[in-house]
Amino acid sequence: MTHELKEALRKQALEEGFQVAAFAPVAPPPHHDHLQTWLDQGCHGSMSWMTRNRQKREDPRQLMENLGTILVLGTNYKPPDDPLAGLADPSCGIISAYARNRDYHDRIKKRVRRLARWIETQTGQTIQGRIFVDTAPVLEKPLAAAAGLGWQGKNTLLVNRQYGCWLFLAELFLSITLPPDPPTPDHCGTCTRCIDACPTKALTPYQLDASKCLAYLSIEHQGAIPEEFHKPMKNRLYGCDDCLVACPFNRFGPTTENPDFLPRKELINPPLEQLQQLDDEQFRERFRQSPVKRIGLERFRRNLAICIENRSE
Q1: What pLDDT score was predicted for residue 313?
Q2: Helices marked H in the chain
């Protein structure tokens, strides 16, 4: 019965719109012990929240009592076009592919809630559970690797053989016990395309120095962006997809069919001059329901100023 429930749950997850679903061991994920070293090296930049709840990040059992199962889910968000095509036109701003439509957190969380209700209906009992979508001290990519959804590549992202790096991740912690799936071997081999593609050399094999990463600097970092990163930023207005796009496994995956994650026309390489005119209300309307809205107009203008500075050189 345990095996049948596990496979029925996996099947239901796919019917809810997830492309992949797998079960991780209820244990510290691979390389969890590297977290403290990474923090000690200052690779988290100014993300002070990374230093909190370290033990919970390292051991998922500390996030929920009676944890019996960790279901890891993946949603394909691969865009239909090359998200780096705008680099050829310095008069436009590039927005990371994940942020060109609706914020994925709430959309995916609703699906996971439906899945949790389905489990209770199937078993006829109340089941304790917790849902995580990049919003808690969870080492999501290591857990996904432990579940066999892929492996954590040299760009530190999860790499899936079918969908490449284009997966949003979510986790459903459950009090019932279901057997884990086997992990997937690392298939990066000698490839270093992601490392070579990084504009600021923020990557070394299997480690990211966030303090040098343009995605971190343009989204998470709240102060001025150090001048040494201005030119490498070019016209990347929000985020950076270079190490993701460079991965050769991305050529296999299909484009997302979810309309929530297909790019909105106005968020595909918008003209910089047009964005200069936005006041706070217009900014909020332009980026309504997009993750871009979360950085606020001040940080957005900071990024925009660098893009315009690079355009004139």
Answers
A1: 64
A2: 2-15, 35-40, 54-58, 104-123, 140-147, 193-197, 214-215, 230-233, 242-245, 272-276, 280-286, 296-311
Pairwise pLDDT comparison (51 vs 1), residue with the higher score: 51
Find the radius of gyration of the CA atoms of the chain.
20
Residue 288: pLDDT above 80?
yes
Tokens standing for residue 272:
């910089």
Give the whole-angstrom CA distance, residue 146 versus residue 72: 9
Residue 252 confidence class, pLDDT cut points 50, 70, 90: confident
Q: Which two tokens stand for residue 126?
A: 């109340």
Task: Flag the least confident range among 32-36, 96-100, 101-105.
Answer: 32-36
The residues annotated as belonging to the active site are 134
What is the C-alpha separation between 210 and 198, in angstroms, rounded?
12
> Any long-range contacts for 107-112 (C-beta under 8 Å, 24+ apart)?
107/260, 108/73, 108/75, 108/133, 108/168, 108/170, 109/133, 109/170, 111/16, 111/17, 111/18, 111/170, 112/73, 112/170, 112/172
Cβ contacts of 228 within 8 Å, gap of 6 or more: none
Cβ atoms of residues 256 and 262 within 8 Å: yes
